[in-house]
């Protein structure tokens, strides 16, 4: 596409414009986005189009990546989304949010997601505060169905390993990871089922990162490797279940200045590109 022309900047005014500009800024890593800005002129590409689509979906808007190729100007995209979702200023999203610790229905498109269903889901987890709840995206439904029909498969279980040399403040590292959890809905999301066994993804408020520390300093290198291999296999077999967070962290102390960090996650909520982005963000904290 042609380079962005020097046009007069038009700031977002409507709720929908503000939502889209916020998502574009986050994905494109730019300081500001105007209504007349061009997605690809700002550095967008097919991968970033997918990222925009996923982020908007989590806010209640079903937008396909290909739509950004048809409507690359933000203002045009806003009009398209309005027509597609009958958006109005009184409805900021189709997502269901918590209100005074009780799930309430806002603008529900899926007729199966009613107040009774939401209440039943909340009753299963009385001590957990749900921020919002929404259906699985089509690609998530495929992954969920495959994982459910083949429970022994580990095709969607991800174990990322970092070998860290040098001094490491373990508590600070965990605190930084906790900041990621606080920032990103996907790291605070669990899968819940309603009475009809239909899966929903629920974003949990105020989640404590699941983390553990293993001190292997007194072991020989051979013993450390044997322990790590056994732990990795057990962790893989454990997998993830409904109603629990789908990511966890373990830090292995191998020496005073030698550590290995294992982050386990599930492709249902964190795919390859999103994991890469999260890792980059983690090491910038």
Please sum up the structure shown.
38% of the residues lie in helices and 20% in strands.
Mean pLDDT: 80
State the secondary-structure class: alpha+beta
The rounded Rg comes to 21 Å
Strand order of the largest sheet: 2-1-3-6-5
How many domains in all?
Answer: 2
Amino- and carboxy-terminal Cα gap: 34 Å
List segments where confidence is low: pLDDT < 50 over at least 5 consecutive residues.
1-6, 87-111
% residues in beta strands = 15-25%
Series of secondary-structure elements, N-terminal to C-terminal = HHHHEEHEHEHEEEHEEH
Overall strand count: 9
Helix content: 25-40%
Q: What's the CATH architecture of the largest domain?
A: 2-Layer Sandwich
The name of the CATH superfamily of the largest domain reads Chloramphenicol acetyltransferase-like domain
What's the CATH class of the largest domain, please? Alpha Beta
In CATH terms, what is the fold-level topology of the largest domain? Chloramphenicol Acetyltransferase
Shape type: globular
Task: Describe the sheet with the most strands.
Answer: 5 strands, antiparallel
Q: Secondary-structure map with pairings?
A:
Layout: H1 15-28, H2 46-57, H3 65-70, H4 74-85, E1 96-99, E2 102-104, H5 115-124, E3 130-135, H6 138-149, E4 157-165, H7 170-183, E5 189-193, E6 199-204, E7 211-215, H8 221-238, E8 247-255, E9 258-266, H9 272-282
Parallel strand pairs: 7-8
Antiparallel strand pairs: 1-2, 1-3, 3-6, 4-9, 5-6, 8-9
How would you describe the overall organization of this protein?
With 285 residues, this protein is α+β, with helices and mostly antiparallel strands. It has two domains: 15-85, ACP-like (Non-ribosomal Peptide Synthetase Peptidyl Carrier Protein, Chain A), CATH 1.10.1200; 96-282, Chloramphenicol acetyltransferase-like domain (Chloramphenicol Acetyltransferase, 2-Layer Sandwich). Helix content is 38%, strand content 20%. It contains nine helices and nine strands. The protein has helices at 15-28, 46-57, 65-70, 74-85, 115-124, 138-149, 170-183, 221-238, 272-282; strands at 96-99, 102-104, 130-135, 157-165, 189-193, 199-204, 211-215, 247-255, 258-266. The strands form two sheets. Strands 2-1-3-6-5 form a five-stranded antiparallel β-sheet. Strands 4-9-8-7 form a four-stranded mixed β-sheet, covered by helices on one side. Helix 1 packs across helix 2 (46-57) and helix 1 crosses helix 4 (74-85). The radius of gyration is 21 Å and the shape is globular. Residues 1-6 and 87-111 have low confidence and may be disordered. Pfam families: Condensation (PF00668), PP-binding (PF00550). Keywords: Antibiotic biosynthesis, Phosphopantetheine, Phosphoprotein. It comes from Bacillus mycoides. GO terms for molecular function: catalytic activity; phosphopantetheine binding. Its cofactor is pantetheine 4'-phosphate.
């Amino acid at each position: 596409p042609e380079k962005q022309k020097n046009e007069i900047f038009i700031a977002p005014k409507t709720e929908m414009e503000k939502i889209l500009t916020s998502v574009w800024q986050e994905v494109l890593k730019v300081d500001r986005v105007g209504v007349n800005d061009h997605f690809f002129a700002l550095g967008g590409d097919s991968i970033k189009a997918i990222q925009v689509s996923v982020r908007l979906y989590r806010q209640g808007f079903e937008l396909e990546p290909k739509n950004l190729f048809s409507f690359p100007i933000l203002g045009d995209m806003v009009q398209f989304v309005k027509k597609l979702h009958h958006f109005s200023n009184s409805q900021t999203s189709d997502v269901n949010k918590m209100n005074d610790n009780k799930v309430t229905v806002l603008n529900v498109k899926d007729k199966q997601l009613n107040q009774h269903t939401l209440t039943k889901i909340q009753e299963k987890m009385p001590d957990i505060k749900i921020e919002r709840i929404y259906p699985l995206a089509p690609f998530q439904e495929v992954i969920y169905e495959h994982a459910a029909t083949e429970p022994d498969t580990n095709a969607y279980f991800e174990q990322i390993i970092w070998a860290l040399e040098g001094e490491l403040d373990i508590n600070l590292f965990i605190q930084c990871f906790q900041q990621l959890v606080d920032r990103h809905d996907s790291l605070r999301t669990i899968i819940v089922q309603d009475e009809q066994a239909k899966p929903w993804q629920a974003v949990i408020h105020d989640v404590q990162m699941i983390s553990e520390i293993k001190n292997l300093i007194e072991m020989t290198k051979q013993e450390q490797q044997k322990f790590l291999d056994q732990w990795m296999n057990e962790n893989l077999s454990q997998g993830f279940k409904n109603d629990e967070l789908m990511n966890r962290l373990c830090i292995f102390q191998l020496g005073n200045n030698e550590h290995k960090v294992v982050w386990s996650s599930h492709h249902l909520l964190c795919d390859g590109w999103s994991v890469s982005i999260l890792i980059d963000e983690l090491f910038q904290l």
